[in-house]
Amino acid sequence: RSAVQVNPPKALGNLGSVLSSQGRYEEAQEALIEAIKHRPNMADVHFNLGILYQNQQSHKAAVECFRKAIQFRPNLAVAFLNLGASLIALGRCREAAQILKDGTQLHGTGVRDRAAHDNARISSYLQLGALYAEQGKLQRALAVYREALHALPSTYY
C-alpha cells in the first residue's frame, strides 16, 4: 500500500489485482475503480475490473469494462474473448458472435505476451464454435473449428 503514494494508478491497479486473487472482491473493486479515477486509460485495470464483475455474474458491468479495455488497447484479444462470454451470458448472442469473430482476427503486432495473445485468439474461435453448436448451427460451428485448426500457432498450449 505504500507504493500508492509514489504511483497511485499503477499501485492501485496492482493492489486491486492482489486483493481480487485473495477473494477480497469488495476491496479489489474499490482499488480498481480508484485506479481508473486516477488514470482512466489503463486497459489492464478496466479488464481486471471486468473479470471481477464477470466472476460475480455482473455481466452488464463486465461488458462496459471489457469495451473500455478494448477502446484503450484494441489488440487485447483476451478482452474480446471475455466480452463475448459476458454478452452470451446476457443473451446477446448475435453481438457476441461478432465480437468473437473480431477477436479471432487480431494480429497481435506489438503485444507484450504473444503466446497469451494467440491463446486468447484461439479461445475466441472455440467459444464462437460452441455458440454456433449450441444454436444448432452445426455447419457453421464445424467451419469455425476448422478455421481454429488452421490458425493454431506453434506456441499454442
From TrEMBL:
Family matches, as Pfam families: TPR_10, TPR_12
GO molecular function: mannosyltransferase activity
PROSITE patterns: TPR (PS50005), TPR_REGION (PS50293)
One Gene Ontology term, aspect cellular component: endoplasmic reticulum membrane
Gene: TMTC2
TPR repeat copies, ranges: 9-42, 43-76, 122-155
Keyword Membrane annotated: yes
Classification via SMART domains: TPR
Keywords: Membrane, TPR repeat, Transmembrane
Name the UniProt record assigns to this protein: Transmembrane and TPR repeat-containing protein CG4341
Organism placement in taxonomy: Eukaryota, Metazoa, Ecdysozoa, Arthropoda, Hexapoda
A single GO BP: protein O-linked glycosylation via mannose
Species per Swiss-Prot/TrEMBL record: Bactrocera dorsalis (Oriental fruit fly)
